[in-house]
Design goal:
This protein is α+β, with helices and mostly antiparallel strands. The chain is 32% helix and 10% strand.
Amino acid sequence: MRRMILAAALLLGLACNAARLTAPAASTDTKENPAETACGEPSGTPVAAVPESAEVVPVPSTAIQIEGVPYSAYQFPGDPFRIVCQEPCPLDLQAIYAEYAGFRVGHAALVELLGIDTLPELQPVDMHLLLDDSVCDELPVGHASVYYTEHRAYTCSQGPGFYPTDEEWTRMASRPDKQYFPLHEYMHTVFFGRISGRAGDFFDYRAEWFHDYVVPIPSYAIGILNLAEFTTRRDPNPPGDYGGWLINELCRRNGFRPEHLALSLVELDALYRSGGGLVSQEGYDHPAPTVSQYRDILNRLLGGDTTGAFAAACWPPELFGNSYAPLPECARPTEEILGTATSVS
């Protein structure tokens, strides 16, 4: 089966609309522990501002097949992604070029902030812009996955979103700050193979979505959210899959800053490449690190135990050897607790 990373339309709509339309709210949290770290301004070099509009130029295309269906693939040599369109392609060439241009700038900003890109073994990542093509119609909402027939990642999105005319869609597509949805789906592929929601016999697929990062981070990369507020922002809508605010909790408890995001993900990648992950996975070169292994990376970088931040963000204690009891506000229905091994291949 395809490994599905679903991005529910309602969840993404709320997250994106909140990021675009509401003023950043200052955290109203009070510190529960006097030893907790006060978060200040990010100390690292800020990500360069993205241009308002990217230069739109023709993109080379080739005829390919995806799962036996003819497509055209648009890609500049060396880019880790390509836009694909099932033939006969109904999209205007200028629209494809505009989306490629806007996404290419947004992708560079995202990778700069993350420090890593999708695993080379999953590249080039195919970007499908039509939710009713031969691949995306299986789940016609925004999502990311890996093909049935080859070990390579793809995303399904509608580019910058819905606009009333093709002309307006094309104009918005060339703007990097309108690339939230494609970047959100693409960022899921960065975690493919690098993080597992398994811990012994326990498995929770939501841990692999990592929406605590994937919801807000693209907005910081392309300027929808101000990176200077990374350490203090606590959005009214919790971005995480468990109803919490992991970034904010890591910040106020452990001093987590934007530079730690890249440092931690670079270490996670190095752990995967070294073969040090603990969860065997079909089709990948190495085992996947667990969430607790990523927690250990954060512990080393931040000089303290970050378990409390994961607990406060309502991450399941089973992922951390049941080293803490769930907080009352994190109560989960029994059916959400998955205690048996589940295949995700």
